[in-house]
Request: fold
Amino acid sequence: MIIVFGCVAVKFLQESIPAILIVILVTGLIGGFVFGLTLPVIVSSNSERVASYEEVAAQSAVQEATKLAVEMGVDSPEYGLAYETLPGAEKYDGPALARSMPIETKEAWLSWMRNNRNDSPVFLEERWQLAQAFVGSSELKRPEDVRAFLLTPREHFVRARNRGLEYADTWLPIGHGATITDPDVVAMMTTTLDINPGDKVLEIGTGSGYQSAILSYLTKEVYTIEIIKPLFVETDQLYRDWEKSYPSYGSINRKLGDGYYGWEKYAPFEKIIVTCSIDHIPPPLLRQLAPGGIMVLPLGPPGRQYIMEVKKDIAEDGAITLTRRDVYNGLRVSFIPFRDEIGTSYSTSPAEERVTVPPPPPPPSSKPENPLEEVNLEENNLNEEPSGTDQAEEGDPEV
Ligand code: SAH
Reply:
């Protein structure tokens, strides 16, 4: 049996050897041809990768950035690379411009604005009225803050669908689930920061860009972070569009990212303003606050927060003291939540029921001509309580 099988196998091999040889030859030829063609490619791509690894890595980073920039609607590769827009070394001096603006009388201010700005006269009138109201209510305390407020055209930042409400003292939607904060809350938070020219100020929650625009007239060192990409792009573009006539916008450092972690690269910051709500002080922000620095933030559970000023002091032995003060005299507000990249709120406490109240009445129109008549610099003490109101039980503005 075995012998029979052996004979059959030998016979089969004898007959097929030429065919097998032909198959091997043809495969070898085709394989050699293809390998010959691909060899230089493999070698060159290998050698290129190895020889200039960093260059290739840099190249792909630029490609990534360009792709991102195109996606964001911005052409410059640097723009997307770090998700940051950083002004050049020469920053425009917004505070100097603010100091040169007269605000002693409405006429003097109007005439300066007419000579230096192209803002619509209707808006100028409304802006002046609102500034006066806030000086009267001590929501604007220092002349520097009044100037910054008067220099900032809120009409640039309120969205087109809310035309007519540019100077209404209320928050307004700006799309992407975000809002532009009420002007009185913006004024109060700005005044609380007590900004000196040269202070580094970090804002969390760029939103419409209005708050940072105001800050740009108080210091050249403004840093702002927004987490919602389309909103970041929209506001970034808005600053670019207006930069020619409003050059201080160009000095605002902008970043797309999660503000919970601050902006380590530029820390410490003398002042930090958080414009989204949270039930605790983010530890990274506290760490990045300079000794003697001030942070202002809407602190409390979802739906209802106090506007708190937090001062950080460090003793010689390294002990850290935090002094907290409610700057809105018990009045509670409801800011947009402080959230992470996938949209989860950083607050863990249960939401408090929101009380819906009608928007606050428009500011009184009969006010003294000079907004500074009511500014008493002697009283500008950060430890004093703000001028008391009875609103605490009445209002629950959303900002
Ligand atoms: N300061 C803004 C107010 C914007 S509302 C203005 O003047 O218009 C609050 C903003 O905080 C929203 O745009 C929201 O997207 C943003 N925000 C929420 N969580 C954030 C986070 N982790 N980092 C940065 N911005 C955040």
Notes: Residues 155 and 164 are 9 Å apart (CA to CA). The first strand starts at residue 84 and ends at 85. The chain has eleven helices and eleven strands. The chain has two domains: 2-45, 62-353.
